[in-house]
């Protein structure tokens, strides 16, 4: 997949800070023995709690891929890469996964998402410039329901009211019927990506966020409870393939928010070779 550069260059402009984000796409693994050895006790419990086999496969594949990518950089096998997903609101292990115990002074930021036959892992870090803290990242992918061409299914009515404000609902309602479901999910993925980047997830009301409309460049326009939120968020639209929509958000530390010279560089890649390589070797030998 080709790289996506979110800035416009000219001869007299150079970024003070460059944030690089690698976005890895994969299909869920069908054999649980391929990913179970990489999961710790807490992750195994979460995996086993899923009722459907496809949900367990998506969860396990995302965790394995994240640990393979981080372990390759740190020189550790996947099973020795620890991801702390403690929710800051309730203490349960369903929050944003944070790498812990890695040799790097500032480990990269990490975000995972999965839907249908798409698994995505985003890894972000500052590669140029000095910031007081590392960035954080959020990614979300959603599959369009099979009946999306018929308009918004009735099952989404309550979700629509809870996640979009009045203006956003009006915009979705004015779209051609065949585009309304995709329009709603564009809003949803953009908002969830932002809330993942901030570490809040779905504990924060989505209606308090205003993002750009479908078809426009992804941006956070307003956040009622955090007036300076838009200054610190950089966003991008991803390419998950037909039948899906996806978005990415990066939260900058406070000392970078006032400077507009922040270049977010995104590279989307297929992770199929990474997972295929891992499947052919014992887990403990997958180092570096």
UniProtKB/TrEMBL annotation:
GO molecular function, one term: magnesium ion binding
Cellular component terms per the entry's GO annotation: cytosol
Keywords (A to Z) from UniProt: Transferase
Domain 4'-phosphopantetheinyl transferase: from-to ranges: 137-222
Alphabetical list of Pfam families matching this protein: ACPS
GO biological process: lysine biosynthetic process via aminoadipic acid
EC number(s) stated in the UniProt entry for this protein: 2.7.8.-
Transferase as UniProt keyword: yes
Domain of life: Bacteria
Family membership: Belongs to the P-Pant transferase superfamily. Gsp/Sfp/HetI/AcpT family.
Record-given protein name: 4'-phosphopantetheinyl transferase
Source species: Allostreptomyces psammosilenae
